[in-house]
Each structure stands twice: as C-alpha cells, then as structure tokens.
Design brief:
The structure is a single chain. The chain is of the alpha/beta class. 38% of the residues lie in helices and 17% in strands. It is built from five helices and seven strands.
C-alpha cells in the first residue's frame, strides 16, 4: 500500500476491490448513499456499515467494522461520520485489523477528518487519506 504520508490515490483506487462505507445511508439523497452507489457502479464491492440498517444497496449492512466477517477483505474504509466520531471509527478499523491482519486505507470524506483519527491510523500503520472525496478523486483520475 502507499506511504502513509503521501497516499497515491491512483494506486489505492486501482488496486482496491472492497470498500467499507462507514455511515452508509439507505436514503438515496444522502451523500454516503450516492457515493456507495457510484462505487458499486464502478465495480467495487461496497460493504455498508451502519447500525441502523440490515441492508443497503442490496448488500448486508453491518453495525461496525469488527462485525464484518473476516472472510471479507477490506481494502478501503471510507468514513462518512462527523469529525467528533472519526477517531472512534479509526479505533474500530484498528480492532478489525487486529482480528484479520489486513491493512485497509482509512479514507475520510470531506470535512470528517480529525487530528486524533489521523494520529491513531498512523500509529497503527494504516494509510490515511484526509478530507478527500473518493468520488471526486476517482473522476479526476479515471474519467
């Protein structure tokens, strides 16, 4: 995976197969839903994470990252939560990493990063993308 300090968006998006969308909504007008649907349309497997739903976009929805079956290898954890919750989402990703050994990229959408979340990811050796929209980056690189 790319260096934690300077993530290579092209490599991340080109090599990823499965993206967990934390905070994914069933509401079609919500940004998390739109982007999850967009990612599915581009061939990614989207794994929705939200304790409020059983399924989103035809996929089982999990209450948190450690609840996703270990056989589902996550390449990217795309976070759609307010900044005050981002560090806890990174802690959840770290807990899953400890269970599975995988090293997913932590991707924080626009306006949801926090210094604590970034520090936690870096301490755990997880690549961290700060305040970037995965759809915008995909369009910029591959459209």
């Amino acid at each position: 995976m790319p260096d934690v300090q300077s993530p290579d968006f092209r490599t991340i998006l080109d090599t990823a197969d499965t993206i967990a969308v934390v905070g994914c909504s069933t509401t079609p007008t919500r940004t998390s839903h739109k982007i999850a649907r967009y990612l599915q349309a581009r061939g990614y497997r989207v794994v929705p994470v939200n304790p409020n739903y059983d399924a989103v976009l035809g996929e089982p929805c999990y209450p948190d990252l450690p609840s996703i079956p270990a056989g589902v290898e996550l390449d990217v954890v795309d976070i759609f939560r307010r900044p005050e919750h981002t560090a806890d989402m990174v802690r959840s990703a770290i807990a899953r990493t400890e269970q599975t050994g995988e090293q997913p990229v932590i991707w924080t959408q626009l306006g949801v990063s926090s210094p604590e979340a970034k520090e936690l990811a870096e301490e755990a050796g997880l690549p961290y993308v700060r305040n970037r929209c995965i759809k915008i980056e995909y369009d910029r690189l591959f459209a």
